[in-house]
Structures are given as structure tokens and as C-alpha cells.
Design brief:
Length: 332
Amino acid sequence: MAASDMHIPAHRNFLRHKLAQELRLALVVLAVLALLPLGISSPYWLGVLIVSMYFAMLSVGWNLLAGYTGQFSLAPAAFAMLGAYTTGLAAWHWQIPLAIGLPLAIVVPGLIGLVLGRIVLRLSGPYLALTTLAFAEIARLVIYNSIDFTRGDQGLNVPPLVGSHVANYYLFLVALVASTILVYAMLRAPIGRYLLAIRDDEIGAASRGIDVVRAKTIAFFVSCAICGFAGGLYGTFAQLVSPELGLIAQTGIVIAMVVIGGMGTLVGPLIGAVLVYVASEMLRDVGNIQMIVFALLVIVFARFFREGLWGLARDAFAGRRAAGSTAAREAR
């Protein structure tokens, strides 16, 4: 057996341990979110947290593709828009109940992503980013200009799924938990190891017999489905969807959330989404300065702290634990 092959089980066990640790911490973050309505009665701030969980779902979906597969898409907001319009158009034109419309918000963007993925995922680097950007803008402009069908920039009314902010809060929380566990299950499965191998060395992964295009397409399909479902849920909460959901600025916010929270981790997108969106609301009164602040933070974190806030917290904890172990040994 080659020396490199002997290290494969150990490396696999390390990855599983790392994923399990991140899942536990992600569940802790989600548990804290579950307790927040007990101390927050303001409908405004509950609404802010609901929207932050919407962005957290987009971040989880985009992180699967960019953080774990190394494929830089610029279309997560566009797929959220497609999910929102799938649910809204089904209810508006054909009176399809939300019990069917919301699953369609998973299926339709997922299938579009599957078709698009088979076309664009043979590309890489800036070509993939530019192709997905072009798709996002085309989708948004088609919706914007199809006034007779989508009502264009007037927006499309969507019926509510539940009647209160608290009910919406826990509905989004359950969806976010499900999205996080789905990504964790994928990463624990063989497909997860394939995705990580593709991220680290796509040519090497192909040389080891991995069907690179197929694995990337599966990741793209799941990512698009998560974003579509988030958009469908958002439509039932806001009760209005518009082409603004698909603006490239919305994708920029998602990227900032993942980079600041920690790309390629389970817990990073959750932390980043909540902190960035809540902070943006707090800075809203000072104009557009929040976009400048977040842009600068993305540059700093991308350059110096590749694993974001989660990586900083983990390293600080590891350093403190090492210092404690050293002090204990010296005391003996």
C-alpha cells in the first residue's frame, strides 16, 4: 500500500471529526436563535432576524458550492428570486396552494440549476463567475420585462403561510436547520469527499477517477434548491416578491456574509449572516456606509483571515487551551 493511501483513513476521520464539531457548534448557534424570541417582542427586530435567516439559507447554499466545491457562482440571489416567483406565480395565476407552491420553489430552481450546471460547470475560475452573472441578469430582466405575466417592477403579491412574526420566525429557523443538516449529510457522504477533492485539486480528483462535472452538478443542484426554497419562504413572509430579489447586490451581501463568517465551514455562514444583516440594520440610519464597511471587511478577511470569524474564534480557543495545558504542566 502506498504511503499516501495509508493516510486516507486518518484524513477521512479528521474530516468527519471536524464536520461533527462544526455541526455541534452550528446547532448551538441555531439553539440560541431559537431562544431569541423569548426576549425580543419587537415585530421590527423579529422581522430583521427572519430576513437574516433568509440570507443565512442563501449563505449555506452558496457556501456548499464556493466554500466546499471551489465553484464561484454569482447567482444565489437569482435562484432565490426564481423560487419566490415560482411560489408567487403558482398562487397568483393558478391558485395553487402554498403546500404545493413551496415544494415547487425547491424543484424548479433546482432543475434550472441542474440544466445550467451541466452547461457551465465545465468552466472554471472567472468564466464560471461571469456565466452565472450573465444568467442572473438575464433571469432578472426577463422577470422585470414580463409585465403581463410577472407584473414586472410592480411586484407580485404572495399569500402568507402563517399569520404572525413568531410563527414565521420558527418556520424560517426550521428551514435553516434542515438546510444545515442537509449540507452536513452531503459532506459526510462520499459525494462530500469528492467535492472537497475537487476544491483542493480538480485535476488530481479527475485523475483519481472522480466524475468532476457530475459531482459539481450535484452540488450546484442542491445549492440552487436551497436558495430557491429560501426565496419561496421569503415571498410568503414579505407577501410581495419583485425583481429586486435577484439584484447582484443581494449576491454581494451573501458573499460578504460567508467570507466574514467563515467560508468552507458549517457554522461560519450562520454567524456571518446574522451578524452582517443585524449590523446593516443598525447602520441603516447613517446612509450607505454599511456597504463600504462590509466591502472593507471582506477584503481584510479574504486576505488575512481565510476562515473568517469562526476561524478566529477557533484559533483563539485552541491557543487558550494550549496555554492552559502548558501552565498545568509547569505547575506539576
